[in-house]
TrEMBL record:
E.C. designation(s): 3.1.11.6
Subcellular location as annotated: Cytoplasm
Record family assignment: Belongs to the XseB family.
Species of the source: Vogesella fluminis
Catalysed transformations (reactions): Exonucleolytic cleavage in either 5'- to 3'- or 3'- to 5'-direction to yield nucleoside 5'-phosphates
Protein name per UniProt: Exodeoxyribonuclease 7 small subunit
UniProt entry tagged with the keyword Thylakoid: no
Keyword annotations: Cytoplasm, Exonuclease, Hydrolase, Nuclease
Stored InterPro entries: Exonuc_VII_S, Exonuc_VII_ssu_sf
Short name of one Pfam family: Exonuc_VII_S
Subunit architecture: Heterooligomer composed of large and small subunits.
Keyword Cytoplasm: yes
Length: 77
């Protein structure tokens, strides 16, 4: 289940891959070497997702300090 060490395509695809890895590992049918490789890949995907979320959070902080106003959805029609 180990993949090459290229950068993930997107946050969403990384999250889906991570969910697949977790599901496969939780099944308990994976040989030890495959489980270790999957664990390593999962850690890399998790780090990628955390970095993408941190980047998005930083962008929101920048926008909040500028002209961005809170979204008021209470007046939806």
């Amino acid at each position: 289940m180990a993949k090459s060490a290229k950068a993930p395509a997107s946050f969403e695809s990384s999250l889906a891959q991570l969910e697949d890895i977790i599901q496969a590992m939780e099944s308990g049918d994976m040989p030890l070497d495959a489980a270790l490789a999957s664990y390593k890949q999962g850690i890399e995907l998790m780090k990628f997702c955390q970095a993408r979320l941190a980047d998005a959070e930083q962008q929101l902080r920048v926008l909040e300090n500028g002209e961005l106003k809170p979204l008021d959805i209470s007046h939806e029609q």
